[in-house]
Write a structure and sequence with these properties.
Largest sheet: 7 strands, mixed
Radius of gyration: 26 Å
Oligomer: single chain
Shape: globular
Strand content: 25-35%
Order of helices and strands: EHEEHEEHHHEHEHEEHEEEEEEEEEEE
Distance between the termini: 63 Å
Number of helices: 8
Structural class: alpha+beta
Number of strands: 20
Length: about 425
């Protein structure tokens, strides 16, 4: 139970040049077709086994929501085949199906019946639904007076009042307070542990990493990647950077460095899948340096470290900026910044020159293995964006953080190094 099989799935909509073209096509079909097809999805194929937690990511308009509507049966495919096995519960749009003139309780009854529950079953589940939603007396008021967060609370509570074979969530959890979101994720985790198949669409890459073991990356209506969430997210972020870049045609998005490449002797460093390179600059060195100037291959937590990044610049850069990102073994971003966000100007760099930067910081991380992503941009604007992305290398190197024998005993992701003061009376 809870499986999904998609084979060469496609969805197209008819587009007419004028308002009368549709009428003419209906009334006078002998005159020929007057529409063109706008393909939202094309040639999508994948299998999802029972119990898998699968994320779906992509830029707005990529076709993610359309794919979910096809799976749930609220839209019909133009081409291909799709089969599902098991009861599906879906949150595709916030409060979809709720009637604004009916009370929350009345909408719960109607939504429950659409899910296949009878009146007695809904009545037995009502106390649990009310308790989980936590909207108090609003349960007996018209939905039109609900906030978006209250609608999400009630919609999620109804959709998950009985564990489904397949649970589909499309960005609904982006609304609401953090405490309710935690309740939702706990329920989702309990469902997947019990065998529920999860399809989760979100722009929150951290959430996808935390709850999904597999990820589908949809790009321009096609399945661009199916695999580990970490690699899918890197490709997705490369697409976002390309969209914002002043010259996206110059960007080359890599599928990953060849296995066994010797970064130390390569003329230009390479990153993992989703890395971006251009002809305007090469990253030639990324290293941690100790206080004595020697390169450090292992680091000790809580100690001051120096991260040095070198670029070979092939054209004049008027406003270059360099940044770095540290991620743990699960792909979660622990820290990210750049010279622009630090309000530092590096100054103009001439063609044929080099740019070397050094970041110094205390390594207040838990002992573990981490990866490093580095990037070079030109022309900062807004809060954290750049007019051009010149070089962006995912996981350009990894490093190991060793424990500090003199530090306090602690657990978590970051050492806050608390100071303890107390008094007794």
């Amino acid at each position: 139970m809870g499986s999904i099989r998609v084979a060469q799935l496609g969805k197209a909509y008819k587009q007419y040049p004028t308002r009368w073209s549709r009428l003419l096509e209906w009334v006078l079909p002998a005159l020929g077709l007057r529409h063109r097809l706008k393909w939202v999805l094309q040639d999508i194929s994948f299998d999802i086994a029972p119990g898998e937690a699968v994320g779906i990511i992509g830029v707005n308009g990529a076709g993610k929501s359309t794919l979910l509507k096809l799976i749930t049966g609220t839209s019909v495919a133009s081409t291909g085949a799709l089969t599902t096995d098991g009861r599906i519960s879906a949150l595709l749009e916030l409060g979809m199906g709720f009637h604004p003139d009916f009370t929350g309780r009345q909408n719960v009854v109607m939504a429950g019946q659409l899910m296949g529950l009878n009146v007695d079953e809904i009545a037995a589940l009502m106390p649990q639904i009310e308790q989980f939603a936590g909207i108090g007396e609003y349960i007996d008021q018209e939905v039109r007076v609900y906030s978006s967060g209250m609608q999400m609370r009630l919609a999620f509570s109804v959709a998950t009042c009985v564990r489904p074979d397949i649970l589909i969530v499309d960005e609904a959890l982006a609304v609401g307070d953090v405490f309710f979101q935690q309740k939702c994720f706990e329920r989702i985790a309990s469902f997947t542990a019990a065998g529920t198949t999860l399809l989760f669409v979100s722009h929150s890459t951290g959430t996808v990493l935390n709850i999904c073991t597999r990820c589908l990356y949809i790009h321009q209506g096609k399945l661009a990647f199916d695999g580990a969430p970490r690699e899918a997210i890197d490709l997705y972020q490369a697409a976002l950077l390309s969209e914002r870049d002043a010259a996206p045609a110059q960007l080359q998005v890599g599928s990953g460095a060849p296995p066994g490449i010797d970064f130390a002797h390569a003329p230009a460093l390479a990153g993992s899948a989703g890395s971006i390179t251009t002809e305007h600059a090469d990253c030639v060195a990324v290293r941690f340096v100790q206080a004595d100037g020697n390169i450090a291959h292992t680091l000790q937590v809580d100690q001051l470290v120096h991260l040095e990044i070198d670029y070979r610049v092939k054209r004049q850069l008027s406003d270059p900026h360099v940044g770095f990102k540290i991620r743990n073994r699960y792909g979660v971003v622990l820290f990210e910044t750049n010279s622009y966000c630090m309000q530092r100007q590096l100054g103009q760099v001439e063609a044929g020159g080099t740019l070397s930067v050094r970041f110094s910081f205390a390594l207040t991380l838990a002992p573990d293995e981490y990866s490093l992503t580095v990037g070079l941009g030109n022309g900062g604007y807004g809060s954290d964006s750049f007019e051009e992305v010149l070089n962006y290398l995912h996981e350009v190197r990894s490093f190991v953080a060793l424990p500090d024998p003199d530090a306090i005993i602690w657990s978590g992701l970051v050492n806050l190094a608390p100071q303890l003061n107390f008094k007794k009376s």
